[in-house]
Each structure stands twice: as C-alpha cells, then as structure tokens.
Amino acid sequence: MRTFAEMDKKLTVIKVGGKIVEEKESLNALLQEFATIKGPKILVHGGGRTATALASQLGIETKMVNGRRITDADMLKVVTMVYGGLVNKQIVAHLNALGICALGLTGADMDIIRSHRREKGEVDYGFVGDVDYANGGLLSLLLQQHIVPVMAPLTHDGSGQILNTNADTIAAEVSKALASFYEVTLVYCFEKKGVLRHPDDDDSVIPHITASSYARLKDEGVIQDGMIPKLDNSFAALQAGVSKVVITRVGQIGNPQLGTTIEL
Amino acid sequence: MRTFAEMDKKLTVIKVGGKIVEEKESLNALLQEFATIKGPKILVHGGGRTATALASQLGIETKMVNGRRITDADMLKVVTMVYGGLVNKQIVAHLNALGICALGLTGADMDIIRSHRREKGEVDYGFVGDVDYANGGLLSLLLQQHIVPVMAPLTHDGSGQILNTNADTIAAEVSKALASFYEVTLVYCFEKKGVLRHPDDDDSVIPHITASSYARLKDEGVIQDGMIPKLDNSFAALQAGVSKVVITRVGQIGNPQLGTTIEL
Description:
2 copies of one chain form a homodimer.
Chain A: H1 4-8, E1 10-16, H2 18-22, H3 24-36, E2 41-45, H4 48-57, E3 64-65, E4 68-69, H5 73-97, E5 102-105, E6 113-117, E7 129-134, H6 136-144, E8 148-151, E9 154-156, E10 162-164, H7 167-178, E11 183-190, E12 208-209, H8 211-219, H9 227-239, E13 244-249, E14 260-262
Parallel strand pairs in A: 1-2, 1-11, 2-8, 5-8, 11-13, 12-14
Antiparallel strand pairs in A: 3-4, 6-7, 9-10, 13-14
C-alpha cells in the first residue's frame, strides 16, 4: 500500500476527446470514472463536434486540414464559446456535484499556457497557437490545494489574442511542464480500447508501443492518420520526463494494462 | 500615504455592464483603468447584448421580464457560451496582456457561488439562480496570491446545473462574502456619470444617496426601473458590512467623488 505522500506525488492527466464529452451518457461515465482517480489530477477536454455544429447553425463553414481546424475570426469566437464556455463549464459543474473542486481554465487564465500564432506555411490555420510554455509551477500550486484543473483547448499569445490549440497538445504540454513536480501519467482517452492492430477488431489492442516498434508499426501502415500526432505527442512527453503514457477508453482508465502503454 | 499592509486590506469589486464590455473601445478604456487600481480587486461582467445577438442568430427568442432574462434550456446554453466563454475569456486574455494575473470564474468553478433555481412565481424565469452563498474564504486565498478574479454572471446549484444569475447580484454577493476579510468598495460601473436627478442632464449627478434620501427619491420618481434593484443590492451590501458602494462610469472609477456614493 502506498503512503499518502507517495500518492500525492503521482499526477494523472486525462485528455478526453470530443465524442466522449459531447454525449451525455459517455460524459457521465467518464466523469464518474475520473472522480474515482486518487491523488492530483487534471482533465483536458475537446469539443470539436459541438463547435462544428454551432458554426453550422451560424452559417460558418468548418474547414479541416490534416485533422486540424482552420480558425478564422468567426471560428475563433465559436471555439472560445464552445470550449471555454459551454463544454468547460458543464464539466466543471458536473465535477463539483461529484465533490471535486474543479476549476475551468484556458491557457489565458493566469497566463497558464502561452503560445504564438502558427506561421503561415502551405496552410494558413488562422488563429491557431503553438505552445511556448505551460506554467507547471502555478498548476502545481493549484494541485497542492486539491484543486482539479479542467482545461479547455485554448491558449493566448500574451498580447490579448486567444488562440485555438489542439487538446492532445495541451495535455502533452501540461504533462511535460509538471514532470519536474510529479510522477506524471498521461492518459489519452478515446472511443477505442487502445491502439488497434486491426482497426475493425476491437480485441486487437497493441499492449505496448516503444520508439522502435512505433517506427515499424508506421512502416506497416498499422498506425496512420490521426494516431500519428497522438503518438508523436506521447513520445515527446516521455522524452521530456513524463513517466507513462496510456491510450485507452472510458471504463478502463483505472486499468492501464487493458489499453496501450507507450514507452521509450 | 497608506502602508502596503493597509493597502492590501482594501478590496475593490468592479461590476461592469454589458454595453461597456461589448464595445471594443469602451472595454479597452475600462480594462486600462481597471489595471491601474491598486491592491486586490475583482471584476464582475455582464454580456447580455451579445447573448441576445447570438440567440437571435440561432433563432432563439429573447424574453425579458422586469429587466431579467427568461432562461430556458436553449438560452442557458447561449449565456453559458457568451458569459462563461466569449466575454470572460476575452477580458481575461486582455488583462493578462496588461500584466494582471486574471482568472476567469463562474460560480461553478471551485463551487465559488452556489445558488438555487428560482421558484416559479407569477413568472417562470427558467434556469435562473438566486444566490445561497459566495465562498469568501476561497476568493480571499486567490486575492492573497495576487490573482484577479474575473467573474461571469453564472452560478450552479451544486447538483451539476448551471444557472443564470444577474451580474449586479454577483457583485453584491461577492462583496458581502469578502467584507469580513477586507474593507470592500463595490463599484457599479455603467454608461452614466452616476445616478442622475434628471435623466437627460448628465451633470445632475446625485453625489450621495442614503437610506432616507433613497426612499424620498423613489417617491419622487427620480429613481425608478432598473436603478431600483441596483440600489437595493447596494443597501443590502452596505448592511452586510461592505464599506462603500459607488455608482459611476468608466474614466472616473479612481475618483469616486465624481459619481454617486451610496451610504447607510
């Protein structure tokens, strides 16, 4: 049995995707499970489907390139409303009802995550921010007060501009920034049991991926598309001192051995 | 000259109405002025005009009774997005750019303001919350860390339900909850110089209103409509230990003698 002091040194960062937080039933299941996680913890959420739906209702077209949202001024308002307002505050209210002292944050709040607007390359992503730093010291102070940060995928440039930032990236950056304060486990929680060898076979979970097996799995085409940035983020996090990265689904967060564990 | 310790015991709570925060120029002026206020401070904002505009774009009808918004499920989503997301985060990003460690909060965050849904009387206001308590101890801990709370007019019922709550009321409740920690000045900041004796004469500011002169001014019809709940809130705050209430406009927050001071 671990002592209290040891337990407090272990931090769990959970990133949960749009589909889960945007359907009432799966959100309830997630938050119930999240509430049972012992020790300090952080929840990072998406909200893309709701943003796309609201944009559509407002006559704003959603354009995605490489799975990333082109964020013009109108779309920035939409994601600020949906991620920072609707999705974030619903999760916060729900967690507080479960007795968790949840605090909703964007990167702009207390300058927690500073970014810069991505330079225009072949694609102009618009108001999209690449992270410069996350303030691990301040997050650690909050965690010590038993506050549970609930983080929306928005950052700011320090000059008053809010920027849209991928939630997987937020989770990785926050985990990295806290790696010198805690033994950090980063959990990417999505709809599948883990990284699958055969996309149609939910029982083909790959239990472990290392840097060398990752290269092989990419060559074989087993890992492709949206999974590549997730795994790149995972390895970057491990290289920056994060202890463990797990890719799994709601219902088995507490049993990481059921999902895919990423190791250096 | 006051000592640092004395200065730290004085708290300024500024409530700023929709019209000011929703126009770029007046918002900039307000935030510049807010940034110069010494010592601990809190900003409470509205956002009603933006909520009404977004609702209209979404085909949701805005119904007001006695100046208060009827908040059905769709309207609750709109105000959660606009107050908690768009308006709040824009202010937070802007203040951080001015070097202020601003933290956006709704009442749901860390259970800062708990409310209950208003009972249906002659009017069913829908998802509107009447405040049960504001957590002055927790707000005071934030203020001691030089964090500046930026509060959206949303609360929660402790069972996961977000509720729409009037921003004037939020400002008064927060001021009251902090009155045992600080010498609190509550400033209601709106478009006019102060409470006017003659609505069309901007130079007819009433410098002081006391409980007895308030009764007379109501009888005379000088104070009516939307100003009545604001003054009722002011007197309730004073009775609960708030030191001073000022009704004024942007540009003269630092010179309370130019606005209307409310006294018991």
